[in-house]
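Q: I'm building a small set of examples for a reading group on sequence design. Run inverse folding on the following structure and report the sequence directly after it, with nothing in between.
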């Protein structure tokens, strides 16, 4: 067992770190306050090849492994989780789903520009549309319908909490094609945002990851060509579950980055801030907080690497991805709360960044499957072993 990162991994990590400091840190507070979408940052990520990191070079991707992706996600999330969640959705959900299950024609038409992050010089990203007003953790309760009309489907319904909803060019939409079959009657479709009948709702005003664009998307008699269905009719639920498992690695690494960012800021501050004649890092109350932070973050990192390794080795990574996700997200929430405490009054001030990291951390316990859902998955997996 080798815990040493390869030279390529270290290069990816450094490139992501440099990008985060040079491109994401400037203006991060203002983007958060104004809910300003980080278009410029994503365009530069596309140029780096970070919007299709794990996609084969045959389809315009970088052809990197999942460990590289986790390293990049961690570094960017240390600084700006709004940028990293946009990157995560495009990589883990949209590009992965298309490459793993799409036809050759679908890959050529959609995957290649999505992996490159650009088409005709403009930003080109995707979104994953599963959640509905009455279908969150219970993904089987789909109300969006796709009615077979012979040469096309007629799509109607509403999806909400959609990351990249307002800026994406392509949607992967989960919809019910045969309600009598329950979750076995759910299918998945590639839908272009520009098609008639696609309506983008207003941007959600969120607690955290405020710069990422989260929207409700509505479909009113949208004609979807038959060739835009991914897999067989009824494949949609399985597609969603398989794809979300990979997405959980992305969110676990985002949570890891948020926690690491808060820890690094806290360590630096505790060495500079003095109380009772010495740096507060030398007071046992603070040193113990830092020790617990470092230990939990290291454990979360190893879980992320284990899930990544399982995925790259083409093993079943359902269990390891859920373990990484639930532990890393809860580590992020705990660590950021402690970071605010270590900073004292300054922790409550935006310019010290930790209050934003604390707000950003909360969503990692919710999206891509709540912590409660992760425990259901983990329990099911360990019982059947």
């Amino acid at each position: 067992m080798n815990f040493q990162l390869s030279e390529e991994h270290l290069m990816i990590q450094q490139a992501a770190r440099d990008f985060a400091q040079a491109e994401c840190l400037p203006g991060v507070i203002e983007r958060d306050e104004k809910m300003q979408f980080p278009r410029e940052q994503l365009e530069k990520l596309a140029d780096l090849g970070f919007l299709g990191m794990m996609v084969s070079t045959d389809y315009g991707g970088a052809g990197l492994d999942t460990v590289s992706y986790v390293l990049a996600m961690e570094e960017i999330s240390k600084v700006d989780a709004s940028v990293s969640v946009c990157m995560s959705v495009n990589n883990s959900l949209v590009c992965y789903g298309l490459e793993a299950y799409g036809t050759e024609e679908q890959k050529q038409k959609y995957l290649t520009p999505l992996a490159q992050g650009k088409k005709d010089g403009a930003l080109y990203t995707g979104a994953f549309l599963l959640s509905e007003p009455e279908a969150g953790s219970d993904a089987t309760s789909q109300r969006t319908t796709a009615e077979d009309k012979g040469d096309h489907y007629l799509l109607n319904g509403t999806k909400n909490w959609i990351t990249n909803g307002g800026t994406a060019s392509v949607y992967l939409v989960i919809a019910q094609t045969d309600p009598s079959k329950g979750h076995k009657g759910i299918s998945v479709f590639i839908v272009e945002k520009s098609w008639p009948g696609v309506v983008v709702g207003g941007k959600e005003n969120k607690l955290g990851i405020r710069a990422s664009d989260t929207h409700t998307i509505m479909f009113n008699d949208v004609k979807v060509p038959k060739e835009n269905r991914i897999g067989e009719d009824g494949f949609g639920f399985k597609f969603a579950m398989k794809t979300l498992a990979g997405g959980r690695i992305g969110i676990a690494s985002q949570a890891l980055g948020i926690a690491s960012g808060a820890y690094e800021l806290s360590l630096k501050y505790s060495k500079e801030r003095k109380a009772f004649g010495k740096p507060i890092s030398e007071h046992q109350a603070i040193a113990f907080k830092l020790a617990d932070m470092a230990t939990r973050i290291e454990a979360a990192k190893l879980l992320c690497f284990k899930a990544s390794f399982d995925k790259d080795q083409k093993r079943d990574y359902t269990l390891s991805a859920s373990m990484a996700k639930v532990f890393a997200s809860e580590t992020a929430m705990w660590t950021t709360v402690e970071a605010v405490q270590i900073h004292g009054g300054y922790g409550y001030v935006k310019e010290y960044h930790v209050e934003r990291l604390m707000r950003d951390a909360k969503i990692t316990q919710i999206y891509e499957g709540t912590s409660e859902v992760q425990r259901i998955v983990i329990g099911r997996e360990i019982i059947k072993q």
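The two ends are 23 Å apart (CA to CA).
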